[in-house]
Amino acid sequence: MSGNGAVWGRVRGRLRAFPERLAACRAEAAAYGRCVQASTAPGGRLTKDLCVQEFEALRSCFAAAASPGDKMKLRCVITGWKNLSAR
User: Fold this and answer.
1) Cα–Cα distance measured from residue 35 to residue 4, given in angstroms and rounded to the nearest whole number
2) Burial class (CB in 10 A: 0-12, 13-18, 19+), 29
3) pLDDT of 52
4) Are 57 and 25 contacting, i.e. CB atoms less than 8 angstroms apart?
5) What is d(CA 78, CA 48) in angstroms, rounded to the nearest whole number?
6) Dist CA 14 CA 8 (whole Å)
């Protein structure tokens, strides 16, 4: 099982770097958060695709922030883990 140490080392490295990579998306995350917050304020109504432009900008930023080897893992985070089982 000596190979497992190398695998876990790579996983830990990716997990440590993840917050730093996504920090580049602060503006997009803030814009999406403001959109959702505004639509859920008293009198507001959150509906599907109401904040689609902001979400797409955030998703694109997340995808760009991920290294090529991490895109699959990032896609799972963005779209939800339930879609992972469909693969």
Assistant:
1) 43
2) middle
3) 94
4) no
5) 16
6) 10
